[in-house]
Amino acid sequence: MQRLSFLFVLIILYTPVNAQEMLGLVNGNYSGTNSLLINPGYLTCSKLYLDINLFTTNLFFQNNYLYIDRSEDKIFDILKDPPKSLSSTRQFIHELENDEKKSAFYNLRIYGLSAMLVLGRHSFAISNSIRSAGSIIDVPYMAANLGLFGIADNPLHYRSFEAEEFMLIDLTWEEFNLSYAYILNATGKNQWSIGVTIKNMFGIAGGYFLNNKIDYSVSNDSISININFDGEYAYSLPLDYTDNSFTSDNLYKGYNVGFDFGIYYQKNIKANPYFGVDKIKEQKFNEYNYRIGLSLLDVGCIKFKENAKHYVYNDASTDWQNLNALSFTNLDQYNKDISYAFYSDSNLTLYNNQFSVCLPTAMSIQLDFNLMKNWYLNGIYFQGINLGEICIKRPSQLSVSIRYESKLFAFCIPFSLYEVKSPRIGIAVKVYYLTIGTDKLNNLFNYKSFSGLDFYASVKIPFAKGRKLAKF
């Protein structure tokens, strides 16, 4: 049980994750391949005719349950000497003890070698990335406390609890994407474009725990626990479940095809130019007064069929004695022992050898206004959408950004509301090939508590539109 509790802490605090929307990186006219992450239609309105992404990474994490008190603990000291056991972790992990249900969201994206090319009305891109995303949704405080501290030596002994409808879900996958955008109409100063990204998604690992309802009471620290559970869980991992050893055979455990779709309208300052391509490098960028975009992002699910296990418990009950004496050496033994405790049958709960997990889907609306030469005001709203019951929940976010951009230098300052209630301020700076930023700059100045992380960086070789080969 100590091992399971320590794993809970690692999931909550240490899983590397995506700077949720990279507001300072995706919405500029020099974003190039990175604009695909917000609206694939924006390929056609770039100030670049060619963009080669060498490396982009973004990390984000946020939770409302655990935090590190920075007035007592130094973050860098903890990172230099990470905890090696649950007891050492407890020295600096603190709980937010309230009735609010506990949630977390995390996401990692490593955006590899990618490229985009603009040819008049047509734009093309190819991209590759490795992603990991997950969410913990609506876990009651009492259940989170037992998950963190375990049952032994827990002050919640001799109490009964009831919890309904919470979920833990995680997904790691690789994407190979093809994107295409086209200027549908360019009459006078009006311009309409659409774009689509087709995602070939290869599942590396995935899993979830879905609780429909659980009643439990902890009697004492011997330990006895009475449980009534209705729910399910599933996983597909690069492990040999008989000894928990890593296996490199067949890295991909699942597959499916997904997509992004985007459309935008742009009101240009001057009438639209000739979109024919005489010389690629001499293509023109038409400056605009404002732009309005709408997109659907991360639409799709990954179906795991390799090394997949799906277990179901239908309103099952057990009175488990001496729980602290249990010792699991591998996942197969764990599942059989749990199944036997509820049904007196070690294999009854194995429901299927396949399952699906849906991506963190979102709808996004974008507004971009040209204030003056090189200065822009941008607004973006992301609304998470659940495509199915087993779906990573993408947090909603509203942002307003002020942006300055030129070929050699740019910066952006986004003001955002995470889950449309938690205010944040960020900053991103681009110099030549390099862009770095964060959407949570205020985290650096909050000396009381540390409950999340946000950072992104990008290295690319862009070629700007114009008469000269504007390489920088």
Structure overview:
- With 472 residues, this protein is mainly β.
- It has a single domain (2-471), classed as Porin, CATH 2.40.160.
- Helix content is 10%, strand content 54%.
- It has 6 helices and 27 strands.
- It has helices at residues 2-14, 23-26, 75-80, 86-89, 141-149, 331-343; strands spanning 48-63, 66-69, 93-95, 102-111, 114-119, 122-139, 159-187, 190-220, 224-236, 239-240, 245-246, 254-268, 288-299, 301-304, 308-320, 350-352, 355-358, 362-372, 375-384, 397-405, 409-418, 422-425, 427-431, 434-438, 449-450, 452-464, 470-471.
- The protein has a 22-stranded antiparallel β-sheet that branches. Strands 3-2-25 form a 3-stranded antiparallel β-sheet, with no helix packed on it. Strands 10-11 form a two-stranded antiparallel sheet.
- The radius of gyration is 25 Å and the shape is elongated.
Q: What descriptive keywords fit this protein?
A:
3-stranded antiparallel sheet; disordered N terminus; 22-stranded antiparallel sheet; mainly beta; 54% strand; 472 residues; 27 strands; elongated
Number of strands: 27
Indicate the percent of residues in helices.
10-25%
Count of domains: 1
Helical stretch tally: 6
* Backbone structural class: mainly beta
The first-level CATH class is given as: Mainly Beta
Residue share in β-strands:
over 45%
CATH architectural group: Beta Barrel
CATH topology: Porin
Shape, per Cα inertia axes: elongated
Stretches with pLDDT under 50, minimum 5 residues = 1-19, 467-472
Radius of gyration: 25 Å
Mean pLDDT, nearest integer?
Answer: 82
Biggest sheet architecture: 22 strands, antiparallel
| CA(first)-CA(last) distance | 55 Å
